[in-house]
Each structure stands twice: as C-alpha cells, then as structure tokens.
C-alpha cells in the first residue's frame, strides 16, 4: 500500500474537523428545539390549570371507568356476573320497655288477694294491679293473660274495643315467632271479663250470644250443604238425561229397520223409527 503524502493527510484532517463541527451543530440545534417545546407545553399547561382551577382533564381511557370488587361477585353461569347483595339487618318493632315506667310503690301496697308485699312488678307497671306471683298462678281465671285473638274469641270483642287503651291496658311484647311480625298484645283476663259483662249484660248474655252465633254458623253450614246437594242432583239429572238421549241416538242409528207396507202403493214404513221408503218391483 503506497504511503499518503503530506497534502493528503492535511485534507483528511480538515474533513474530519468539518464533520465533527457539523455533528456538534446538529446536536445543539436539536437540544434547543426540545427545550423550546417543553417550555411551551409547561406554559400552556400552567395557563390551563389557572383557567380550570387546577383540575386535570380526564383521558379517554379513564373517562368511563368503573371499579368493581370482584371478590364480592359471583358467576351466575348465564353470561354475566352478579354482585352479592348485602342483607340489611332485620328491623325489630318497638315494644314496651318496662324499665322506662316508674315504679311507685309505698309501704302500704300489698297483694289484694293474700296481703303479700312481694308484688309482681310487670302487673303493677302495666295493668296497675297489686298482685303477687303466687296469686297469679293460683287464680288463673282472674289474672291470666290472653292474646288479642283469644280475647276476641272468648269474650266476643271487636278490634276497635281492644285498641282502646283507656279500656284495656296492654302488655306489648315482641312476637315470639318472628321479630319483624306484629307485636304480641297481652290483655288481663279480669279487665276483659269486666267489660264483656257490661257489654253483654252479664255472663248469661255472653253465653246467649255464643249460642246465637253457633246457631247462625250451623244454619249457614246447613244452607251451604243443601245448596251443594241441590246442585249435585241437578247435575246428576242432567247427566242422566244426556245419557238417555245418547242411548236413544245410538239405537236410532244402529237398529235394523223392519219395514211394512203402508197401503199407499209402493211405500213401506219402518215400525221402529218411522222411516218411509219407496219399493219398486221389477
């Protein structure tokens, strides 16, 4: 390989310097352009933030986004998933709180039956009755508790009368079958019996009303039974008539004609159904 001359080496060095200068100039111009763009974007963003009160615009990807908790969802096997409903606790009905009723007992208060001072607090607070627990168990015909249904059945009282708290003090308790049902209302038998005596003019009048209602119930039942029997007989007669009619039609359609001459030339008539035919002799 021939050696380069001094003139060629000088030209190569000059070309290298020129290329290096052009590369540095290009890098400098590109960096200044990027800095200008960033500065303009920052200025525009600051202006927008000042105009919108510092709020950021939502992007198209996050504008309609809803977050779901997949741990609370179940697959219905029908092409979609369903979120489990959180069951709210059952609302319990308000009942009478005996602790809110003041207990006003004096030294002279005692059981009206036996004179004991060991009174039943519930009976004293709710029914204003001075009676001990032993007498409550000993005299159930007077101090037993009846529900609303039993009061209506035993003493023939109405709902309007039982709703009157001036007539009947009531002990309202939570329903023992389900807490969300209507509260259980308990009445004192003594109060119910006293009002029933006034309403029906004594226990004899109450017994007469029982007998009258039982008689009315039996009469309605007997009337319903007679109506059902009459309807059954009517349907039986209709079925029997329909059966006889079908039998007659069957006989008319299936019997063998027995013709006899009628005396009018060539005509013959069936003795069973009256069918008339003409007979020609050849």
Gap between N and C termini, in Å? 150 Å
What does the radius of gyration come to? 54 Å
Helix percentage: 40-55%
Q: Give helix and strand order, one letter per element, not per position.
A: HEEHHHEHHEEHHEEE
Give the DSSP E fraction (strand runs of 2 or more residues).
Answer: 5-15%
Strand order of the largest sheet: 3-5-4
Average pLDDT over all residues: 78
Structural class: mainly alpha
Features:
flat, 8 strands, 3-stranded antiparallel β-sheet, single chain, 282 residues, mainly alpha
Describe the structure concisely.
With 282 residues, the protein is mainly alpha-helical. It is 49% helix and 10% strand.
Can you put this structure into words, describing what you see?
This protein is 49% helix and 10% strand. It has eight helices and eight strands, in the order αββαααβααββααβββ. The strands form three sheets. It has a three-stranded antiparallel sheet. The longest helix has 52 residues, at 203-254. The N and C termini lie far apart (150 Å).
Structural topology:
Elements: H1 6-51, E1 73-75, E2 81-83, H2 121-126, H3 133-138, H4 140-143, E3 145-147, H5 148-155, H6 159-163, E4 170-173, E5 184-188, H7 189-199, H8 203-254, E6 259-261, E7 267-270, E8 276-278
Antiparallel strand pairs: 1-2, 3-5, 4-5, 6-7, 7-8
């Amino acid at each position: 390989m021939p050696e380069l001359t001094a003139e060629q080496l000088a030209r190569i060095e000059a070309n290298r310097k020129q290329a290096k200068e052009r590369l540095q100039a290009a890098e400098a111009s590109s960096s200044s352009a990027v800095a200008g763009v960033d500065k303009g974007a920052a200025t525009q963003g600051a202006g927008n933030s000042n105009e919108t009160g510092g709020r950021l615009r939502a992007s198209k990807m996050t504008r309609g986004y809803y977050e779901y908790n997949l741990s609370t969802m179940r697959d219905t096997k029908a092409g979609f998933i369903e979120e489990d409903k959180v069951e709210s606790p059952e609302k319990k009905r308000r009942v009478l709180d005996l602790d809110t009723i003041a207990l006003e007992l004096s030294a002279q208060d005692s059981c009206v039956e036996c004179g004991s001072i060991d009174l039943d607090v519930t009976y004293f607070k709710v029914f204003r009755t001075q009676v001990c627990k032993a007498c409550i168990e000993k005299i159930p015909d007077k101090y037993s508790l009846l529900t609303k249904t039993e009061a209506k059945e035993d003493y023939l009282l109405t709902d309007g009368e039982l709703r009157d708290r001036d007539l009947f003090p009531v002990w309202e308790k939570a329903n023992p079958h389900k807490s969300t049902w209507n509260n259980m209302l308990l009445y004192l038998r003594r109060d119910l019996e006293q009002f029933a005596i006034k309403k029906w003019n004594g226990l004899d009048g109450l017994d007469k009303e029982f007998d009258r209602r039982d008689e009315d119930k039996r009469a309605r039942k007997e009337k319903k039974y007679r109506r059902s029997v009459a309807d059954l007989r009517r349907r039986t007669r209709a079925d029997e008539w329909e059966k006889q009619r079908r039998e007659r039609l069957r006989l008319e359609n299936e019997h063998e004609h027995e013709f006899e001459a009628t005396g009018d030339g060539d005509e013959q008539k069936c003795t069973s159904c009256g069918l008339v035919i003409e007979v020609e002799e050849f």
